[in-house]
Design a protein that fits this description.
507 residues, alpha/beta, seven-stranded mixed sheet, six-stranded mixed sheet, globular
């Protein structure tokens, strides 16, 4: 077995457990009856946060506050300039609190501290970008409807938005949604994952400090049942924005169907990278390692499936396997660590189940394929895993593993590569590696994915829209499209001069 790179316990002193409460109409509140829940650090195995456990009472109060605030109109009718000023202040406060936010995110999620800091920095950039968009909301005018008519198309905030975020990028993903909703003039009810609630609570503190009016953003901590279910079905909510698993996304669509509210979903992925024989194999191997091990593979954009030409498969796999052994797994509070802990023991078992099933089906584990012992740590870790000999019918080739596990398939020509790439229910992202621009463009046009990377992987920019096709979701985040998700179109037709003929005629 290839020796792996493991970073043992750093001995860092852990802070006291964070206490989280609900934010309802500008006030921090405990749950009725004092109900709470705890979060154990997946890396350290100790309690790192205690949070109020929301139920029907709390979520209904939060929705009522958001509805009342929106209908009163002070926020939705405020100028883009004023909304932008608050969003920019939030960004500045995020920068000020970056280390505090990063540490609690590491403790609750298990991700490395260097990665967490970079994500918080990226989140602040999203708030600034959304602030810029707040001043650009505009509609259209039509002056070609005749001498007595003027048509105006208005863009208005959709209303109350329920925002439900996942555990893998808790602060970054709420920042992909909430500032765009606020820039549009919406009010919101936000529910973070019960496994990573605390950084969203810190964001609530910063929103208050930045001067956001009470009731514009309300935060409810707790579980999908009942909090998320009520947020998805309540008729006072106009829209649901959710990031998470495809299974939960489907249930949200069902819950929202009763009121036909808008639903925006960013769901799972089984994202392929296709490597042609003329590719820069060293660059591709490094990007493949990054794509599958970043955030321990617990990433909807994980490059968990490579489709490599048979002529270069052995050479590429040798490079990827060698790089896999060099990636430092271990204590997420150590600056050297690049891959931390798995979010929960149940999820670690799910990952391992996919690996065992693939082995039984005839696939070969080239490296990893088992739990990883990290000296001095009490959490759950899974080793970097590369599985070759995968065939399209195997579950590991089609289903989202959501762990540090790479599936390897091979192809002989471009048509076969595209067929294999599209052979999944998902369509979030895809990548192609070739020095021939025609090869890259042909792939980009034929692959079923919301984002296509060529000769790179998982670059991201606030300006570029993000979202999937097929069972990877509906709607888009980021870019101007991220703002448009929270806007409704209204047509206004103005008769500006006499001229309408009477419909009722004199007898």
């Amino acid at each position: 077995m290839t020796e792996m790179t493991v970073i043992g316990a750093s001995g860092a002193t852990l802070p006291e457990a964070f206490t989280g409460r609900h934010l309802i109409n500008g006030e921090w509140q405990d749950s009725e009856g004092g109900a709470t829940f705890e979060r154990l650090s997946p890396a350290h195995g100790v309690v790192v946060s205690r949070s109020a456990k929301g139920g029907e009472v709390e979520v209904l109060a939060a929705i009522a506050a958001a509805r009342k605030t929106f209908d009163e109109g002070s926020w939705r009718m405020s100028s883009g300039k004023d909304r932008a000023a608050i969003l920019n202040r939030v960004a500045d406060l995020i920068d000020r609190e970056r280390e505090r936010i990063a540490v609690i995110e590491v403790l609750e999620s298990g991700k490395p501290i260097a990665q967490a800091r970079a994500e918080i920095e990226g989140a602040a950039d999203l708030w600034r970008y959304a602030a810029a968009l707040a001043r650009t909301v505009h509609g259209e005018s039509h002056n070609s409807l005749g001498p007595d008519m003027l048509g105006v198309v208005l863009k208005e905030p959709i209303g109350v938005a329920s925002i439900i975020t996942p555990w893998n990028f808790p602060f970054l993903i709420v920042s992909q949604k909430l500032p765009f909703a606020l820039a549009a003039g919406c009010t919101a009810v936000v529910k973070p994952s019960e496994m990573t609630p605390s950084t969203t609570v810190i964001l609530g503190e910063l929103l208050i400090e930045a001067g956001l009016p009470a009731g514009v953003v309300n935060i409810i901590l707790g579980y999908g049942d009942p909090v998320g279910a009520i947020m998805s079905s309540d008729p006072r909510v106009d829209m649901v924005s959710f990031t998470g698993s495809t299974g939960v996304g489907k249930r949200i669509v069902e819950a929202a169907a009763g009121t036909l509210k808008k639903v925006s979903l960013e769901l799972g992925g089984k994202n392929p990278q296709v490597i042609f024989p003329d590719a820069d194999l060293d660059a591709a191997a490094d990007a493949i390692a990054f794509g599958v091990y970043f955030n321990a593979g617990e990433c909807c954009n994980s490059g968990s499936r490579i489709i490599v030409h048979k002529d270069v498969a052995d050479e590429l796999l040798a490079k990827v396997t060698a790089l896999s052994a060099k990636v430092p797994f271990g204590d997420p509070l150590d600056e050297r660590t690049q891959v931390g802990a798995i979010i929960s023991d149940a999820h670690r078992q799910k990952i391992d189940g996919y690996v065992r099933e693939a082995e039984k089906a005839g696939a070969k584990v080239l490296i990893g394929g088992s739990d990883l012992a990290v000296p001095g740590m009490g959490g759950q870790f899974y080793g970097p895993t590369v599985i070759a000999g995968v065939t399209p019918d195997m579950a590991i080739a089609r289903e989202e593993v959501f762990g540090p596990v790479l599936s390897v398939l091979t192809f002989t020509d471009a048509d076969e590569a595209i067929t294999l790439a599209n052979n999944a229910a998902y369509g979030l992202s895809a990548g192609v590696w070739s020095t021939d621009i025609h090869t890259c463009l042909n792939f980009a046009r034929k692959v079923q994915a919301g984002t296509v990377w060529t000769n790179t992987w998982m670059d991201g920019f606030a300006e570029m829209p993000f979202g999937g096709v097929k069972e990877s979701g509906q709607g888009r985040e980021l870019g101007r499209y991220g703002l448009e998700e929270y806007l409704e179109v209204k047509t206004v037709q103005l008769r500006v001069a006499p001229g309408r003929a009477n419909w009722v005629r004199d007898s």
